[in-house]
Specification:
Elements (H helix, E strand, L loop, with lengths): L7 H4 L1 H29 L43 E7 L2 E6 L2 E6 L3 H13 L2 E5 L9 H15 L1 E4 L3 H20 L10 H21 L5 E5 L6 H8 L4 E5 L16 H8 L4 E4 L2 H15 L7 E4 L2 E7 L7 H9 L1 H13 L4 E8 L6 H14 L7 E8 L6 H21 L7 E4 L5 H10 L2 E4 L8 H8 L7 E5 L12 E3 L4 H13 L2 H17 L2 H25 L2 E2 L2 H10 L3 E6 L18 H12 L3 E6 L4 H8 L5 E5 L4 E3 L7 E2 L9 H14 L4 E4 L4 E4 L5 H19 L4 E6 L2 E6 L4 H10 L6 E6 L2 H9 L5 E5 L8 E3 L2 H20 L1
Parallel strand pairs: 1-4, 1-6, 4-5, 6-7, 7-8, 8-10, 11-12, 11-14, 12-13, 14-15, 15-16, 17-29, 18-19, 18-27, 19-20, 27-28, 28-29
Antiparallel strand pairs: 2-3, 9-10, 20-21, 21-22, 23-24, 24-26, 25-26
This protein binds adenosine-5'-diphosphate-glucose.
Adenosine-5'-diphosphate-glucose (ADQ) binds next to helix 3, strand 11, strand 12 and helix 15.
Length: 821
Amino acid sequence: MFLSGISKSSRRMSGALRCHLQRRYSKLLVIGALVHTIWEVGFGGASCILREQKSELGSKKEEGQMGLQPLSRVSAVQPSVGARLIVVSNRLPLTLRKTEDGWSTERSSGGLASAMNPLIRKGGGDWIGWAGGGGEEEDGQTRSAILAQWAENERCFAVDLPEKVATGFYEGYANQTLWPVFHNFPSQLKFEAKSWDAYVEANRIFCEAVVNRYKPNDLIWVHDYHLMLLPRMLRDRLPDAAIGFFLHIPFPSSEIFPILPRREELLEGLLGADLLAFQTHGHLQQFRAALLRVLGMESKITQVAVGSRPVRLEALPIGIAPEEYTDLLKSDKTTTDQYADWIARYNGRKVVLAVDRLDYTKGVIERLRAYAHLLRSSPELKEKVVLIQIAVPSREGIDTYQDLRTEVNRLVGEINGKLGTPEWTPLIYINRSIERTELVGLYKLADVCWVGSLRDGMNLVAKEYVACKLEGDGVLVLSEFAGAAAEMGEALLINPFDEERTAATIRRALALDDQERRQRMMTLHHRVLRNNVFRWGERFLAALQEAVSERGRYIDTQPQRLRPTEIRDAYARAERRVLILDYDGTLVPFAKRPEQASPPTRILDLLSALASEPQNCVALTSGRSAENLDRWFGMVRGIWLVAEHGAEFKPPSAPAWESLRPEVPTEWKSTVIPILEHFVDRTPGSFVEEKKYGLVWHYRMADPEFGEWLANELVSMLEAMLAETELRAFRGEKIVEVKPVWANKGEVLERLLASRSDPDFVFAVGDDRTDEDLFERLQSGAWTVHIGLGPTRASYVIANFEALRRILELFAESGNLSKTS
Ligand code: ADQ
């Protein structure tokens, strides 16, 4: 049967797939509704839905567009072993504040500073970032003197942002638009065009600062969501520079990312880098899905091609510098004294610890509610447990954060007021930054560390706690929505949105038996020590250097322009030739409807002339149906016809078509057709074509931007649905096609080559993805030719169908010449 040969589950496809499709179909309707909403509401309207890819991203070939633009070539640099590092992040590890007593320098808080500080201290490098704003005008000279000292002593180079730019950039687009969307909180999204302008301007100012410090061979490492436009800006100014980007926060799902205003610019901004690294594979996959859906760009797991330049993609989970914590534990007096204090204070009580920036993504409110639930439902814990919640103030200029603070304060009062006793305060709430020495003492003290992020790139607190558990005591309770969960499976995982079960997990953590606790903790401890921040930094920089070298190799493997005279000479010299020609987009331009692209007489004559040469085996390969090819090319003698991308073929003068597989199942079509029809309903001008083996959704006549957008949506949806079957969905020129995976031009190649033993000239030409299967199978001696721009495995490129006709005419002429000579 049709689906045999892949897996048992896929053999049961018709029923299983049907259910699967039905389940997915309901999702499709939701997505369809979302698509519709965005279309209706606008978010900037159609103009922001999908812009044509441009400049380095390559422009899409349109009918009648002749010229092939030269590929932009960025030369390869070989960074030397001791290459200098330039780190660029929004904040420097130092923050300058204007106080009543003058200027004060503080250490910046937060995960990025915690991670990068030890790395830079150990490995060296210049750090460019914003020093914090305010007061520049009043006391500019002293301020400049302090910043000069930072540069001299700490290699920290401050970027000054005008106040308006700083506010729009930091509190505006970065933290009220990007932050909520990237953490899957679309309801918190706020957008103003002027804050976007400030974001662009801030990135531009950072770009100037980097360009001013840059020397050839430097490695530039850009950090996080504040600077997503910077890689592209830098690439334009420093085309040869080695540029890496690390995203500390999660990348949102492909259903949420598209709601982001200015999403295309952000993706294009990132693609200026040589290396894009994410905290987890999940985030990386979401990024790839966004590329496909928003820019229509396909990518491999580890790479995406931007014109002729590869961008490497990596998942590199960040670590901590464990010694920064363990050294304090072992030998710091303040830590030891403070630990002794805490022990005395909480003697006999179990301590649960939570440490967060006060941010709605960290799940503080959800934690407090779950804690209240725990206390109410577990009377045996009365006076036996204390939750210490450390909450460092964050982004207080933003209303949402003030609301959060108010609600947290209310809950703290309620818990202690209603559930505490005169002898027992169940919740200790510390709403300030605390010293590392104190934090380490708390980590050592805590029986349980409760990380309840609703969404988090990684979460370093989880790793810091585990690092401090030298003896393997303590239990980590970790949200499954923190990136850390991907590599800390020995923690007790929670869904922080589920108050009741979270409370049950905390109860379990408090009662976990000694052996299990130690086993879990020691495994985590060793892993955190091993996968530390230095290893992460080394891996990032090694990947960046490799990505830059790859740029050089990649250029070497890019197709060359085909010189007509060169191939004509090779053709003329050959005695056993195979010519494999795609049809639509290759021999003829695309027409509005498939039936309108009938072959002009000139093409039929050329094919006849080439097929009549005894040295030639000529094959016409197409995605069209056998019936269509028979109608148009049935009269051309001596030609092979290959229909439906290789599913069926007809050798010259054979009476009937042969199929690559004996049986032709069709039952799946009745499930996929309604989905395609749903897209037809939403997309005026589009239609469904049913072929013997496949189904095609054509949208050439639809609004181009909307059509492209929906096509990406449809492919990602179908790909997920069809994953375990022999069917695949792919995009062609203004089409989405579903067909069996074995129906490809590469499969039929063997039959073709067998008909011309030991050929000394193989010429294959095509313009779309289906031709890539063929190019991949052909050996290096073959003349594989791709028409137009875009990534290809072919060895050569030519501009368009007209250039191909000229080459075929040269072939035909040289055949005539050899006959007359
Ligand atoms: P953050 O959102 O800042 O970082 P996180 O990873 O938890 O989140 O790091 C917080 C850091 O601040 C930790 O080093 C912690 O010890 C420290 N800290 C927290 N509260 C404190 C307090 N009250 N006093 C002193 N120090 C405190 C972003 C992403 C994360 C990602 C990091 C690193 O949001 O998902 O893990 O970057 O990539």
